[in-house]
Design a protein that fits this description.
The protein has helices at 2-28, 32-50, 75-86, 105-113, 137-150, 172-178, 230-235, 250-256, 301-308; strands at residues 62-69, 92-98, 118-123, 158-162, 168-169, 183-185, 187-191, 194-202, 205-210, 226-229, 265-267, 276-279, 295-296, 299-300. The chain is α/β, with parallel strands linked by helices. Strand 2, helix 4 and strand 3 form a beta-alpha-beta unit.
Length: 309
């Protein structure tokens, strides 16, 4: 009798253990609802990482983003990528300046379809003299002229940023630009043979520069690694880029025109310039041989012709 009782107890214990295991599996397996909640939570966290540091109000200053562009095989892809970036950045006016005598159909279509609320499309053909070699100078100066004529008479809240169409940008950089009063600087990624280039900052002060090119420049910095406040731009009406600047000196020559001192320079995104805010990714031109293969009914024409002979 005792053996049967022990066997019965063992069976009951095994059944209980089995039910407990099943319960634990069910309770810990995510349902569709819990999966959705988890995905939504992850999505919110991801958006928070990309969200700008402050929530702008309707009266918030703007970032005026000047982008020179020119015809090439990757132009559409580059402009679309920048469009999708700027669509997520609040209070931005995108000023696209084509290196052309007339507005091209491609850029007109992109400006029409892009959902950035404020876009200005300008044209300015580059005409270089014998001693000039810089692409983009005419377009950047045209963008500056537009800002001076259309913005500065009524507003000096915000900043100007020169964003080439083939770079990659952290959304927080546009928040920095909007809140720039004089000059803001930050680190740039993948430039001058370095993973990071730009200011070395300690407690809000620039104490030096890390660069892989021409270290004797006063401001050894990339075009996409600084912003100029509208108020400062209004004070120096003749500040433009120069076609006669030496190679790699466009930025330092331009910033020098504002005669800023160290206290006038704002370090970003914090006092120690702790993060890269833009990357000089620079799209590589594809090799296109221009010899398409036409397909009819899933067969190449040459194969079809052979069968007909």
């Amino acid at each position: 009798m005792s053996k049967r009782l022990k066997a019965l107890k063992c069976r009951i214990a095994a059944v209980v253990t089995c039910f407990v295991a099943i319960f634990l599996v069910i309770s810990t397996t995510p349902t569709n609802r819990t999966r959705r909640i988890a995905l939504q939570s992850y999505s919110h966290r991801s958006r928070d990482l990309l969200r700008t540091t402050t929530a702008p109000t309707s009266s918030a200053p703007k970032a005026y983003v000047i982008t020179p562009t020119y015809q090439r095989p990757t132009q559409e892809a580059d402009l679309l990528r920048l469009c999708y970036t700027l669509m997520q950045a609040p209070h931005v006016r995108w000023i696209i300046v084509e290196d052309s005598d007339d507005k091209t159909e491609l850029v007109q279509r992109i400006t029409k379809e892009c959902k950035v609320p404020d876009i200005t499309h300008l044209v300015a053909r580059t005409r270089l003299l014998a001693n000039e070699s810089h692409r983009g100078v005419t377009q950047r100066n045209t963008g500056l002229a537009w800002v001076r004529h259309n913005v500065l008479p009524s507003s000096r809240a915000g900043g100007v940023y020169f964003a080439d169409d083939d770079n990659t940008y952290d959304l927080r950089v546009f928040d920095v630009v909007r809140n720039t009063t004089k000059i803001s600087v930050w680190k740039m990624g993948i430039v001058s043979g370095l993973l990071e280039e730009g200011p070395v900052c300690v407690n809000g002060k620039v104490i030096g520069w890390r660069t892989g090119f021409s270290p004797k420049r006063k401001y050894p910095i990339d075009m996409a690694a600084f912003a100029v406040g509208l108020d400062l731009l209004a004070q120096v009406s003749g500040a433009n880029f120069s076609h006669t600047s030496k190679t790699g000196h466009l930025e330092t020559d331009f910033i020098t025109l504002f005669n800023v001192s160290s206290p006038d320079i704002t370090t970003a995104p914090d006092g120690n310039c702790s993060r890269v805010l833009a990357w000089h990714t620079k799209t590589v031109l594809p090799e296109v041989d221009g010899t398409p293969v036409f397909v009819v009914n899933s067969e190449r024409q040459e194969d079809r012709a052979e069968k007909l002979q």
